[in-house]
């Protein structure tokens, strides 16, 4: 984005109306140049021949917000709240004409105008919460005056944009038109002038009083939905100020709170993720003009939970899907799961009945590989048996048309070996979805040694089309995400056998911000999964025995996790509510005694440092080996696939925040003090600490 774009704002008088056009591609963000241009145009219009003003945008969208890349740097005048006050104070009528998305500060500019007209395809919203902020240019004061306090809280807390029609219902948009926005806006202005319409300033409207409960309920919800985040609570404080204080004082309060957030660590972390997510979509070294393959028909092999979820992701995005199972019984079972999932989406209000049935109709079942002959992409999603996967790829090689992309959804297997089972390894790669696949956003795209560039580019772009967040990984055991999970789980288990309890390990990690503690995650995934995987390995490849002694003993006692009603915890068969189980405590103590471990008190801080730093250490190896392209890619993987708290920015960002020297110091300490030394520091960590460089600096050099 060109922050010094001198032509970012154009002003001309057209048929007596001063038309201010913002033109700052790609999304018309409110850079310094845009703010300055708007200010000059509005000021000029006060004394020129114009009768009224129109603010409109060139390109694909209305202003999409403040320029996020300016955050964290010294702000230059004019500041946005001041500019918006000047727009609102205009002595001549000002109308905003909205197309695309009017977001954040962009929507706040529109709210500073006296009236708003929008295309019916437009969306408006206040997404600042996703950046660890809340609207900081009058949004918290003007929206409650226009739409009422409950609607304002909902809009700002969700961060999700609403349609122009919904915005009109809420009183945030005054007119919605089907097309020809500029002409309609000019006609609307003429109408308003003819009618002698008042200069309706949102700041002058009263706020409808609300019961205190509205704030209390919202705060209670944030404690659940946005656990650990400060911005939602600060937003409530600002809205409360709108209710209790005159506009000018409310605005000042908003500014103070907003500035606190802007300079805080949570907003920094979430800003990092905003840019990391967009960067992750780019593959270094690919030709920019690479021709992508056309993907319209998709085949999925395996109608289990994973295959069904993947099929839904494609069907929901408008693709034709053929789901293949080994026999009719398995196929009907798989399609049954899909039906139930769609019913669930309708029940939760995610899809209407009609939408769900249209999506479902795009999925057809088959037991015949011949039906995949025309598929542009086939994704294998059967269970983790390397021979079975290779066999499937051989069959696909025989039936699929030339140019079709063949993908495996494996979580751990060697993608190169699977690709080598075909005569077309260049067309093969990994597409690792996360369960439940129709909901989870992450897609690890695994590049095999021989994967063709256009195949990779096609699948990365496809990931976006099916509304996932695609991140590329090289081939290694577990790719980026699951490979880093190994040391994380190891340390969680070691803390357990050395003295913690399932509850204390889970509580430490959950309170730190992860969506779920690692012990509960193991129960959810099924303890037999890891057990079988270990059994298949020779003893010397299974790692530190103390890290799996307890789960092995649980499996051998028939405790497989949630699915058998008991694992590390006991689960209520109806509610799935978990409770601690003294039997498990006895097993832990017995196994510790067998291993000769003297149990001791383990603090929450130790649990957090051991699990998190073990994960970071592995992340640094992954970077060094080139498995991940950048540290930000790893962060995106963890936030979108593993319930890592966005407000901590991901494991690599967290490492930088803690300080790499501190991470190294703790790792060395653990290596010296813990019974088994699992703690050799990643060479990259030692190198960066020695050189006094950050991971980001290294990655960008
Ligand atoms: C705010 O407004 C605070 C105020 O309340 C108070 C201030 C005092 N700034 O997403 P895309 C870049 S906070 C800078 O791929 P799409 C983006 O990095 C802001 N850059 O496109 C990318 O660059 P590149 C509140 C931005 O079509 C390119 O534009 N607003 C900004 O999929 C294309 O982006 C938001 O949070 C920005 N604001 O989606 C809106 N926005 O090509 C954030 C985008 O180099 N933006 N870029 O990677 C979005 O949600 C989406 O970009 C949007 C378009 C829906 C607009």
Classify the beta-strand content into a percent band: 5-15%
Mean pLDDT: 96
Class by alpha and beta content: alpha/beta
Helix count, DSSP H or I runs of 4 or more residues: 29
Q: Specify the CATH architecture of the largest domain.
A: Alpha-Beta Complex
Taken together, the total number of domains comes to 4
User: Quaternary state, please?
Assistant: single chain
Shape: globular
- Ligands bound here? (S)-3-Hydroxyhexanoyl-CoA
CATH class category label of the largest domain: Alpha Beta
Poorly predicted runs:
none
CATH topology of the largest domain: 2-enoyl-CoA Hydratase, Chain A, domain 1
Reported for the largest beta sheet, the result is: 8 strands, mixed
Write a structural description.
By secondary structure, the chain is an alpha/beta fold. It folds into four domains: 254 residues, Alpha-Beta Complex (2-enoyl-CoA Hydratase, Chain A, domain 1); 177 residues, NAD(P)-binding Rossmann-like Domain (Rossmann fold, 3-Layer(aba) Sandwich), CATH 3.40.50; 121 residues, N-(1-d-carboxylethyl)-l-norvaline Dehydrogenase, domain 2 (Orthogonal Bundle), CATH 1.10.1040; 96 residues, N-(1-d-carboxylethyl)-l-norvaline Dehydrogenase, domain 2 (Orthogonal Bundle). Helix content is 49%, strand content 12%. The chain contains 29 helices and 19 strands. Strands 12-11-10-13-14-15-16-17 form an eight-stranded mixed β-sheet, with helices on both faces. Strand 15 and strand 16 form a beta hairpin. Helix 26 crosses helix 27. The longest helix is centred in the C-terminal third of the chain and has 21 residues. The model has no long low-confidence stretch (mean pLDDT 96).
């Amino acid at each position: 984005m060109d922050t010094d774009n001198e032509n970012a704002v154009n002003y001309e008088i057209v048929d007596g109306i001063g038309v201010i056009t913002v033109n700052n591609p790609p999304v018309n963000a409110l850079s310094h140049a845009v703010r300055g241009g708007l200010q000059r145009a509005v000021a000029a219009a006060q004394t020129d021949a114009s009768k009224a003003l129109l603010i409109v945008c060139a390109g694909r969208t209305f202003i999409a917000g403040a320029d996020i890349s300016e955050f964290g740097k010294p702000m230059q005048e004019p500041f946005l709240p001041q500019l918006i006050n000047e727009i609102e104070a205009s002595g001549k009528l000002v109308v905003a004409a909205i197309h695309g998305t009017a977001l954040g500060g962009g929507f706040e500019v529109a709210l500073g105008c006296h009236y708003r007209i929008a295309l019916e395809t437009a969306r408006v919203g206040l997404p600042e919460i996703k950046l660890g902020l809340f609207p900081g240019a009058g949004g918290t004061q003007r929206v409650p005056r226009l739409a009422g306090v409950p609607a304002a809280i909902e809009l700002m807390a969700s961060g999700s944009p609403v349609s122009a029609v919904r915005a009109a219902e809420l009183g945030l948009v005054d007119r919605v038109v089907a097309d020809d926005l500029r002409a309609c806006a000019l006609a609307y202005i003429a109408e308003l002038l003819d009618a002698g319409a008042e200069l309706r300033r949102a700041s002058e409207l009263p706020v409808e009083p609300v019961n205190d409960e509205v704030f209390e309920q919202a705060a209670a919800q944030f404690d659940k939905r946005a656990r650990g985040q400060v911005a939602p609570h600060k937003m409530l404080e600002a809205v409360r100020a709108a209710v209790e204080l005159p506009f000018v004082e409310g605005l000042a309060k908003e500014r103070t709170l907003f500035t606190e957030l802007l300079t805080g660590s949570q907003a920094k972390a979430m800003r990092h993720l905003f840019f990391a997510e967009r960067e992750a979509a780019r593959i270094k070294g690919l030709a920019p003009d690479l021709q992508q393959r056309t993907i319209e028909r998709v085949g999925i092999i395996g109608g289990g939970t994973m295959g069904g979820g993947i099929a839904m992701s494609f069907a929901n995005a408008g693709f034709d899907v053929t789901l293949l199972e080994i026999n009719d019984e398995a196929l009907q079972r798989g399609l049954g799961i899909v039906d139930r999932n769609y019913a669930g989406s309708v029940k939760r209000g995610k899809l209407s009945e009609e939408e769900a049935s249209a999506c479902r109709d795009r999925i057809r079942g088959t037991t015949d590989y011949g039906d995949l002959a025309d598929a542009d992409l086939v994704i294998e999603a059967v269970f983790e048996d390397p021979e079975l996967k290779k066999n499937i790829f051989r069959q696909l090689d025989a039936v699929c048309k030339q140019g079709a992309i063949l993908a495996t959804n494996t979580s751990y297997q060697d993608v190169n070996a699977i690709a080598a089972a075909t005569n077309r390894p260049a067309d093969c790669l990994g597409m690792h979805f996360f369960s439940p696949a129709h909901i989870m956003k992450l897609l690890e795209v695994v590049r095999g040694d021989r994967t063709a560039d256009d195949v990779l580019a096609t699948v990365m772009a496809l990931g976006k089309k099916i509304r996932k967040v695609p991140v590329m990984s090289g081939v290694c055991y577990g790719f980026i995400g699951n490979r880093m999970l190994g040391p994380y789980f190891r340390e969680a288990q070691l803390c357990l056998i050395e003295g913690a309890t399932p509850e204390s390990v889970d509580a430490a990690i959950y309170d730190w911000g992860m969506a779920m503690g690692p012990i509960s995650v193991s129960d959810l995934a099924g303890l037999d999964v890891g057990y079988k995987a270990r059994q298949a390995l020779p003893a010397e490849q299974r790692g530190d025995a103390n890290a799996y002694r307890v789960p092995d003993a649980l499996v051998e006692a028939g405790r497989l996790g949630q699915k058998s009603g008991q694992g590390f915890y006991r689960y209520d068969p109806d509610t799935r509510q978990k409770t601690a189980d003294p039997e498990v405590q006895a097993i832990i103590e017995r196994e510790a005694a067998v291993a000769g471990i003297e149990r001791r008190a383990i603090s929450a801080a130790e649990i957090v440092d051991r699990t998190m730093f073990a994960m970071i250490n592995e992340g640094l190896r992954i970077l060094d080996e080139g498995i991940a392209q950048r540290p930000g890619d790893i962060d995106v993987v963890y936030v979108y696939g593993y319930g890592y708290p966005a407000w901590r920015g991901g494991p690599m960002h967290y490492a930088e925040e803690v300080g790499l020297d501190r991470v190294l110091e703790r790792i060395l300490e653990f290596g010296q003090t813990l019974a088994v030394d699992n703690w050799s520091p990643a060479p990259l960590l030692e190198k960066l600490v020695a050189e006094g460089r950050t991971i980001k600096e290294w990655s960008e050099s």
